[in-house]
Amino acid sequence: FWLKFANCSQQNPLIRPAAMRFCSVCSSCDRTKVSPNLVQHHDEDSRKVKEADLAMRVRMQEERQRQDLHARQERQRVEEARRREMEAKKRMKREEAEAQLRELEAQRRQAEQKAKEAEEKLRAEQVEQERAAKAAEDKGKLDVWMKSKNLKEVNSKKSLGLFSGSVFPLHIAVREKDAEMVNILLANDADPTSVNSLKWTPLQLAERLAAKDSTGAYDAVLAALK
Questions:
Q1: Which residues lie closer than 8 Å to 8 by C-beta, 6 or more apart?
Q2: Residues 207, 164 share a domain
């Protein structure tokens, strides 16, 4: 019966698997008596099953690898996004800190500039006050000196007598070796180009007098006129 069933299964592929199952579980069946074609088909089916199983295993492994790769790439993407976000936050904090430092530096420079301007203004005011005080003091000295020389203006010509010629206040200060009064007269608009009766300017007079003097008494006068 089984031989007939097996031989029949060779002709009808629908019952071949059943024949294979019976043949595989029947211990009393002598497979050497089974038709070679049946054995060949059985081996072919076994090979196909193994190949299908292997292919399925390969596909499953490839799918797992693909999923693992996708998961790894997704983790990398998330980590990269997190890293970029952290870098952006750090950069923003750094830029904010730098902006605050620049603002503080600008405020410091502005404060220093204001302090410098205030100091310069105060110094200028002090200089102006000192200059005004010095000018007032010099004006007082000039008034006293002009009065003592019987002079009315800093550019008034004074006659020294019928045969002594005429001079200006600067010439008088030069002859007296009074460098301070020369400076005061010049500061009060005395004309340094005025000439005496000998046609000498105050500087020319000082140079001629200095040439005859070896003590250097006219050096300060010459320096004031030059």
A1: 15, 19
A2: yes
Reported confidence tier of residue 41, pLDDT bands at 50, 70, 90: low
Return the pLDDT at 36: 65
Give the total number of structural domains in the chain.
2
**With a threshold of 0.70, does the pTM exceed it?**
no
Q: Are 35 and 41 within 8 A, CB to CB?
A: no
81 domain residue, yes or no: yes
- Domain span at residue 170 reads 150-225
Radius of gyration of the chain (CA): 63
Query: What are the DSSP calls for 123-173, one per residue?
Result: HHHHHHHHHHHHHHHHHHHHHHHHHHTT-SSTT--EE--TTT-EE-HHHHH
CB under 8 Å to 22, separation ≥6 — which residues? 2, 5, 29
Amino acid at 6: A
Residue where one domain finishes, among candidates 81, 105, 133: 133
Q: How many CB atoms lie within 10 A of CB 226?
A: 9
33-50 b/e (C-beta count within 10 Å ≥ 16 → b): ebeeebeebbeeeeeeee
Residue 42 has pLDDT above 80, yes or no: no
